[in-house]
Amino acid sequence: MHTAKNLFSHRQYWAKRFGIAPVLPMSREEMYELGWDSCDIILVTGDAYVDHPSFGMAMIGRLLESQGFRVGILSQPNWQDKNAFMELGQPNLFFGITAGNMDSMVNRYTADRRLRNNDAYTPNGEAGKRPDRSVMVYSQRVREAYKGVPVIIGGIEASLRRIAHYDHWSGKVRKSVLPDSKADMLVYGNAERAITEIAHRLANGEAISDIKDVRGTAYMCKTAPQDWSIVNSTDVDKPGVIEQHPDPYEAQADCDKNKTETTNNKVVVQLDARRVKLDRDRTVLRLPSFEQVAGDKVLYAHASRVFHMETNPGNARALMQEHGQRTVWLNPPPIPLTTAEMDRLFEFPYTRQPHPSYGKAKLPAWEMIRFSINIMRGCFGGCTFCSITEHEGRIIQSRSEDSIINEIETIRDTVPGFTGNISDLGGPTANMYQLTCKSEKIESACRRLSCVYPDICKNLNTNHKPLINLYRRARNLKGIKKIFIASGLRYDLAVRSPEYVKELVQHHVGGYLKIAPEHTETGPLSKMMKPGIGSYDKFKEMFEKFSRQAGKEQYLIPYFISAHPGTTDEDMLNLALWLKKNKFRPDQVQAFLPTPLAIASAMYHTAKNPLKKVNRESERVSVVRGDKRRRLHKAFLRYHDAENWPMLRAALKRMGRSDLIGNGKQHLVPSWQPAGTGGRPEGARGYAAKKKQAAQDKRSGKKTATQSRRKPASKKRVISKGSSIRKKKHVHRK
Length: 734
What we know:
The protein is of the alpha/beta class. The protein has a twelve-stranded mixed β-sheet, with helices on both faces. Strands 21-22-23 form a three-stranded parallel β-sheet.
């Protein structure tokens, strides 16, 4: 693994003399109170400003402050007015721009592209306080306000859009956010190393256009430097299945068997079966251009595959992708932080409160995490629908036990409203704390996209003892009543340590534990890179055993996903039958949302499988498109909801499974429909509507459609008011 300069070894900037700000200023008045005449760096965010380590802008702001810079925050500025971006004046060094902790499109729209009615990162949950594609819009307003000031974009929205990507909300492939935003530079992932180095180099007088060698950054250029070798990605992507740990660059061979050509004074190498060893630090992989991936789905899937195989900081090459006459250049991923560096990030003087300007307004996201603690970052699970690995990477970066304990004590002693309960000790995954590869050499050469799929890698350390010790020490602290674990649990790892499962179940579950099998069927699970349902069954057995031993009545709440690529209607039917057999009735279900850069999103867009070698004849993936079919898959998960029964009956008949319609325990849906459900005019609600319409027609003297078709009834046939309705309702319920 490459080494990196210590994050805190830079010489502090001269403005350190102003000291530490109680909170980073959001107005000129706050700046003047601190004695500042200007800001060195201004951070623009789509979130409310909460001075808490779980909010990205707060951590980056406090980090830059620790380096001696004066940092201001523009939180949720009015994107329709450039004057809102001039509130703090012109920064001396640069503007840093992010959409916030969430992608702005995911934040505002559901998987079915419907507007959400709230925003957890806005005071009082108010929706509409940030624009769609916030990074691009904020960058453009900053450019209008201050021409010539460097603009650096980052955060998860920028990370997931650093190359050409499928955009679910427009239904097409969009360019990298770099040319669209007109930013000078993009920092991707957890950008502490990159943003710190860039800030110091700008402060030392370097121009932003001259900073080209920082890992974890991307920028626009015309071509590769003179001394670099360019390798086309189509020459590299010949490794077969990813589980074989291929390294297409390390094979030794006679270079005479490789063809070379010169383009614009650059050496372009055409590899012959990967039989060449190039200088890794001076080789760039050329992905198919934006125009190519936008027009050819096979090339898009290929580019996605190559991109994901080049994400290990130990062996990743630089990437380039042409966008018209210019090129997006991606430097290799950043070197993960050490434990000591992670500890320092969480020791900054956070107030752990929203900015005072929000007064008594409620901030739902802060309310949820105010008593939770992040113990690690990164995830080696590799779930194809998840964006964590694209953003944080696969290498686990853990804090020390002492650092975590100190934070618990800080919450206990200083945070108003603390009642003794820590809501979570976790991160992207609850139980990957201090789990690493057994060999740094193997880790640096590895190209697997998951350390746990299709099986747990033999080189992975799965020892949960450090986490067990942390739990025990934390819950024994004075003033701590309960420590809950709310982060997602990787149960296929947990079952490797029965001691951990016992510790978790008997001390850290509040009656319910949420886990995510996601599906029961092999087809969709193989496209998710998730373990089979047998792992869930094994964990469930251990969970129930240890709950009984503790004398506690506790339940597992499994989460499932609908409409994921690779899922057929039959798969969803089998999942529904499994849910009914196990007496699960999910209230909330997750529909697949194609987020930019995710492997599953590439499957959704291309109907190809980038987990294997991609070509015209390679595996075709079943894709669930269209609102009607997506609703059906969601309806299978909520088979118990009467509103879904008409849709499910129609689907079961179409699938040749009418045997599952009936009123017995063996049936999935009943043959009858409750009054007022299913979107049909049957039942009390339907008859009430008919009755109301008939009364209105009678007053207006208008004949109903039924009356116009029938002959007037004789007086002998007149019956008491409402009796026919009661009779029909009685028959219906039979």
